[in-house]
Amino acid sequence: MQIIDGKKIASEIKLEIANEVREIISKGQRAPCLAAILAGNDPASETYVNSKAKDCSEVGFTSKIYRFDEQVTENELINKIKEINADDNIDGLIVQLPLPEHISESNILLAVDYKKDVDGFHPQNAGRLMLGLPTYVSATPCGIVELFARYNIETSGKNCVVIGRSNIVGRPVANLLSQRTTPGDCTVTICHSRTKKLKEICANADIIIAALGVAEFLQADMVKDGAVVIDVGITRTKKQNGKYKLTGDVKFDEVAPKCSYITPVPGGVGPMTRIALLKNTLKAAKKEIYK
Ligand code: NAD
After folding, report:
1. Rounded CA gap, 137 and 139, in Å?
2. What is the rounded distance in angstroms from the CA atom of residue 56 to the CA atom of residue 65?
3. Phi and psi for 283 in degrees, rounded to 5?
4. Would you say 178 and 184 are in contact if contact means Cβ atoms under 8 Å apart?
5. What percent of the chain is modeled with pLDDT above 90?
């Protein structure tokens, strides 16, 4: 059994990106720039946005955070998005979710210029992913596929079960792994809260991607010997010392001995998700997807 070290791969990719940024700057061009919009006072969102800004500075990108209070109007946000869309010095724009309840998430995400949509949430980019065209692949699916590639894990012809059908994880990763690509060429089954006989379906899988957000859901009797298990789930529980403990969707101690490869939580998919945003921002700066 091999533990997939997402943290190590993520630091390797960070160095690769930092080298590219140095090259870009040595040619006299400006550094790639990511803008983030943060509305409201959600502490988790504040942490996420700050870590994204930190990641940017570590690879030599510049970043800007636009903060709005909980009472911000949809129009105010859309005006700021339009301003950023028109700013040639900004390559990528992300809107941190969730937004305050009175704001329509879809109106806001649609307002982002798809050429700057480095989260890959705009229908243009999600649609291109569906068609197998070059696009900004959303962060977690992008990170998972990169792990398969970097560990040379064979996916062709394998039975892959994805548990979870969200627009940001389950469905895009299922789509990517079913495409005629490497990694890819899997026979994919998507399972969700209404799936029957989920245990049997999982027990036949060569690859299981657990993305449902239920702590330690996947247990040893649901996993066949030699399977590859990718644990996307993150459940936060507050410890007595006030710090948070992160638990994945996989009962790691009992499942790991049966696997050929498994990702831990933390240190598996999480760091790769953060890297994907940097990769997409670099693509935007280089105008790799849209000229
Ligand atoms: P979501 O709540 O949008 O979707 C969860 C999906 O799981 C739904 O499609 C639902 O049908 C399915 N589901 C729920 N209970 C189920 C059950 N008992 N059996 C089968 N299917 C069930 O969640 P999401 O945004 O896709 O995130 C999933 C998990 O991944 C969460 O824990 C989230 O925190 C985590 N996550 C981690 C990263 C990362 O970087 N590691 C990134 C994104 C999300």
Report:
1. 6
2. 12
3. -60, -40
4. yes
5. 96
Q: What is the pLDDT of residues 224-258, one digit of tens each?
A: 999 999 999 999 988 889 888 999 999 999 999 99
- Listed in sequence order, the residues at least 6 apart from 125 whose beta carbon sits closer than 8 Å to its beta carbon are 114, 117, 135, 136
Which pLDDT score is estimated for 242? 86
Distance in angstroms (rounded) separating the CA atoms of residues 204 and 150: 25
The one-letter code for the residue type at 152 is: N
- What is residue 44's predicted lDDT score, i.e. its pLDDT? 87
* Per-residue confidence (pLDDT) for residue 20, from 0 to 100: 98
Can you tell me which atom of ligand 1 is nearest the CA of 213?
A: 32
Dist. CA 143–CA 173, nearest whole Å: 10
- Candidate from 105, 166, 208 with most ligand 1 atoms within 8 A of CB, to mutate: 166
- Dump strand ranges (E) for the chain: 2-3, 33-39, 62-68, 92-95, 159-163, 187-191, 207-210, 227-231, 235-238, 244-247, 259-262
Distance CA 84, CA 78 (A): 10
Q: Which residues is 234 bridged to in the sheet? A: none
Residue 167 Cα to ligand 1 midpoint, Å, equals 10
List pocket residues of ligand 1, CB cut-off 6 Å.
140, 163-166, 168-170, 191-193, 195, 198, 211-214, 232-235, 269-270, 273
Q: Which domains does the chain have, with CATH numbers?
A: 28-113 (3.40.50.10860), 139-270 (3.40.50.720)
Q: Which two tokens stand for residue 255?
A: 């499942």
Confidence of residue 155 (pLDDT cuts 50, 70, 90): very high
289 CA to centre of ligand 1 in angstroms = 29
- Say if strands 187-191 and 207-210 run parallel, antiparallel, or are unpaired: unpaired
Residues 6+ apart with CB under 8 A from 88: none
Are 150 and 133 contacting, i.e. CB atoms less than 8 angstroms apart?
no
How many A from CA of 68 to the centre of ligand 1? 28
